[in-house]
Amino acid sequence: MARRFILGLIACLYVVGSALADEDFGDGWLRLNRAKILELFGEREADSRTKDYVGLNGNAIQFGRALFFDARLSRSGNLSCASCHKPERFWTDGLQRALGPSSLNTPTLVGVHRLKWLFWDGRVIGLAHQATHPMNNPEELDGDPLYLMGLFARTGEYRSRYITQFGELPIECQNKLGEECQVKLAEFQLNVAKILGAFVASIPSPQTPFDEFQRQLAQGVKPSNFTAQNLRGLQIFLERGRCATCHWGPDFTDGQFHNVLVPEPGTAGVFSAGRLAAINEAIRTVKQYRQPSKFSEYAKSEISRLKVDSSMFGAFKTPTLRGLTCTAPYMHNGRYSTLEDVVEHYSSFTGILRPEHHNDPLVEPRQFSDIDKKDLVSFLKTLSALGPDCNN
């Protein structure tokens, strides 16, 4: 339903669109499409059913912040969540491939609390569920429930904060392996993940030139901070580029999965399985939620609707476009180093072998001119905060 609504909005924009000249800035096309632009990129709240993190209270957020930057969460003592999600890199790491076992690029954490499915392939639902994966992975934090229990038991501040939030630690399970203790330890680890989720959900999205443009547009005044080139780029983004088919809302993502023909780096036609492989993983991992809750029941109902669909081969989640100037390299596998590379990809798909089963009409060459490409990149840069610090 949401996808059809957005396609309808874009169709309306396209009908009234025509090439913008410098003298049209702030008039003509923008005046005609003001309401549609405001609606397309308006605010969107998180689905309350996916808020499996502790409510956004100050104690939980500060506790989560402490855990996020604490390398003691890893068994080696060398890694923390911030090792891969660096604030100065808009909560990414600047690497083509993430540290650890992943062959994928590290996504930003900004706005993830508004998404249902997490990881590039959407193998989990909800922030807390996501956080347990690097905790348990021996190639990442390797902080299983027993290890975390020991850390909390000997760290007075963590123990007291946990007790305040959830009650006593299940200390009695440190030397027991029965089913009852396995459930208690799993719940303990999930509670720690919820605290981390509280901090992640509090990470703000820095104000950008586009936000100021939106603010002035909403007030009914001619935006003073957008250049004619920025505005032409916005028009391309909405119309001939059809970028807003997938990149819409306040975070410029539909939260869904698409195969946009991005093969593995160094190849022309080797694609990762993506969402197709993640469906079975999602079904398996949701079953790990043992305690009844509104969230776990919601997750199970969502999982029950999943079907193994070959069209999901090579599909990955639409990333946010916020903070683009700080989050290179781009795409799920870090294939492209610059925004210019990304725009060229959609313009021509040069050198890429399309799989026989892939016939999505939305993934067709846009055939941008050189000026179009520069205009589009200029608009994309307005989605990042000004200045050297990616979070100001």
TrEMBL record:
Residues 59-152, 228-384 form the Cytochrome c domain. Binds 2 heme groups. Residues 1-21 form the signal peptide. GO terms for cellular component: periplasmic space. Its cofactor is heme. Heme c 1 binds at C81, C84, H85. Keywords: Heme, Iron, Metal-binding, Oxidoreductase, Periplasm, Signal. The keyword DNA damage does not apply. InterPro entries: Cyt_c-like_dom (IPR009056), Cyt_c-like_dom_sf (IPR036909), Cytochrome_c_Peroxidase/MauG (IPR051395), Di-haem_cyt_c_peroxidsae (IPR004852), MauG/Cytc_peroxidase (IPR026259). PROSITE patterns: CYTC. This is Cytochrome c domain-containing protein. It comes from Pseudoduganella buxea.
